[in-house]
Fold:
Amino acid sequence: MFKKILIATDGSENSLRAAEVGRDIAACMNAEVTLVYAAYVPAMYSADLGSEIREALREEGRRILATTARLFEGSGIEPLRELLFDEKAEDGILRLLKERDYDLVILGSRGLDAQKRKALGSTSMRVIESAVCPVLIVH
Structure:
């Protein structure tokens, strides 16, 4: 049923749990997995970032992707890694879903209460509203 799975990670406990669930689903379905991390800095701050800080953000993203990929060791699945930069997580996730024809996207819930979610928005809520495939949110 699911042949291509996109798993979003930010290094949080919930996103690592989501990756474990995704790993198990992928193993059952013999599916390809892509891990995605977005190192986003709002445009109003981006112009002020020097090359050293930009590279540090990219390095942190690579570290988070590597940590998440370690959860797949011994599973027989070698996840692809996608580091997004200068793109909000939800925008990048939705773009990848459309461009690469994923069958499932898995995200961890940040656990925001209703008031914070309304004020700040939520990556998972935005992905749920616009995704072109099933979305699994892991708490």
Notes: The radius of gyration is 15 Å. Residues 51-70 form the longest helix (20 residues). The domain at 4-138 is CATH 3.40.50.620 (Rossmann fold). The longest strand covers residues 32-39.
